[in-house]
Amino acid sequence: MTAGGRSRHHERLLALIPYDTAVTMADLVRISGLSRPTLADMLHRLQAEGAMLCEPAVASGGRGRPAQRWRRRPPGGMFAALAFSRDSVRVRVANADDQAFAEREETLDVALNARGALDGGHRLLNECLATLDSDVESLTSLTLGLPCPVGDGNQPQTRGLLPDWVGFRPVEWLRDRLPGVRITAENDANLAAVGEILDGAGQGCRDLVYMKLAPGIGSALVIGGRLYRGAAGYAGEIGHVQINEMGHPCVCGARGCLAMELYIAARHSTGGEGGLLALTELFRRCDAGDIAAGRVLGRVGGLLGEQLGALANMIDPERVVVSTADVPPHPALLAGIRDGIRRTALPAVGDLPVIPSPLGIRAEPLGGIALARGAHLSGLAHFTASPERGRRGPGGV
Ligand SMILES: [Zn+2]
């Protein structure tokens, strides 16, 4: 028995169930391998302890008795996400069931002032808590989202990406100011992928590629219903795949990386500056009827798509979700991505849906809160994917 009096069998069953998903008895039989009578006994004991909630059965219109659904009771207290990009922070604080929440965002010089950025995030966190008539004493856990790979031990790999963060330990910095709060760091695209799976274009999906263009190119992989981080946290760094060995020098030390070549192509045609700004300028010109801008979007989308097609051949995702931060991805960019995927993927893989993110940058604090609450996506898709595997978008796309 554990210290709380609950047996290890009950603890193991609880560990299989994420906080954000209701499950049926059939789901639990499938993932636990236990019999229905054993599970029923365990669930009723956990319900009596207050660890599980049983939702009334709702008729679905199908044949047979409607299934009861079980939900894990969320932990108490408040949960927070501090989601940093290179030049801003978005903070969200919510209670266990998301019924009460507060959000703030601010433009900050994140890349060149690590302590100043964290100070700003910490201040916004306190403002959010005050809005909810709460304080740091009530905070249970916090996810820190950063625009860089995050390795074991919560250590961000910031070299070449966030100059002032090199050698700095942000999780320890926050722990000194938030004693007793469980704090974990996570890559920003990983946060967004979780947000999309729970509340956006990734719903019902267990094999997903999420791609974010803002201002570098980040991606996240969900494989078999789990976030895939790789051996050292570098999984998903598609922006640093070399596509031209004679290309432009990149911040990572190599030449001709996908992100660098793509944004330079966008800047060349707009004559302006900035990666994402050049892309959004192309969106605007394309909407105004500029055919040349549409061609450039098709070409940069194709560069992305060719790499995504190679990746799709390896992991066979159900769909790709694309985000361009504050603005929706332009249809011409998405069309270019689809063409590029078809050029490099097997025909049977190349028709996978490429879907614009409905959440944009908001996916990051949403996913951060879910991770803070402990929805680590472990087994999540066992419950949410359709029984027949296949590629389909949300709402039948
Ligand atoms: Zn690079």
Describe the protein.
- The chain has 397 residues and is of the alpha/beta class.
- The protein has three domains: 65 residues, Winged helix-like DNA-binding domain superfamily/Winged helix DNA-binding domain (Arc Repressor Mutant, subunit A, Orthogonal Bundle); 119 residues, Nucleotidyltransferase, domain 5 (2-Layer Sandwich); 169 residues, 2-Layer Sandwich (Nucleotidyltransferase, domain 5).
- 39% of the residues lie in helices and 18% in strands.
- The protein contains 13 helices and 13 strands.
- Strands 6-5-4-7-8 form a five-stranded mixed sheet, with helices on both faces.
- Strand 5 and strand 6 form a beta hairpin.
- It is globular and about 65 Å long.
- The N and C termini lie far apart (48 Å).
- The C terminus is likely disordered.
- Bound molecules: zinc ion.
- Zinc ion binds next to loops.
- The site of zinc ion (ZN) has 5 residues, from loops.
